[in-house]
Amino acid sequence: SDLHTGSINGPSYSLLTTVNKFIHLGMPLEEALGKVTVRPAQVIGMADRLGTLAPGSYGDAVVLGKEQGAFELVDCHGQVRTARERLTPRAVIKGGRLYKGPTMPGRHLH
């Protein structure tokens, strides 16, 4: 992927950007999401707590939406492709708190 030490100043600024590139190149959604959740948790030996929503795990999650349009995807060589859809973050659940939007304070989930 383009998310590595050589891309610290772009063009991949987040794991979600990388997921969108994987999907655009034909990787199934479930596989692309697994590459930034389940697989990294396995690599660092924390698959029982991270990358899963199983009972006993941390249970942190990002709620994603899908947008339609024309979205430029630039790789680390400056090549540009145009995706017709992309995933975007809608909310984050961290430590039992729900966060939505850049300025909305978290609130505890029941």
Total strand segments:
4
Between the first and last Cα atoms, what is the distance in angstroms? 38 Å
For the biggest β-sheet, the strand order reads: 1-2-3-4
Largest sheet composition: 4 strands, antiparallel
Secondary-structure map:
Elements: H1 15-24, H2 29-34, H3 38-43, E1 61-74, E2 80-94, E3 97-99, E4 107-108
Antiparallel strand pairs: 1-2, 2-3, 3-4
Q: What would you say this structure looks like, in words?
A:
By secondary structure, the protein is α+β, with helices and mostly antiparallel strands. It contains 3 helices and 4 strands, in the order αααββββ. Strands 1-2-3-4 form a 4-stranded antiparallel β-sheet, covered by helices on one side. Mean pLDDT is 84; it is low at 103-110.
Task: Give a brief outline of the structure.
20% of the residues lie in helices and 31% in strands. By secondary structure, it is α+β, with helices and mostly antiparallel strands.
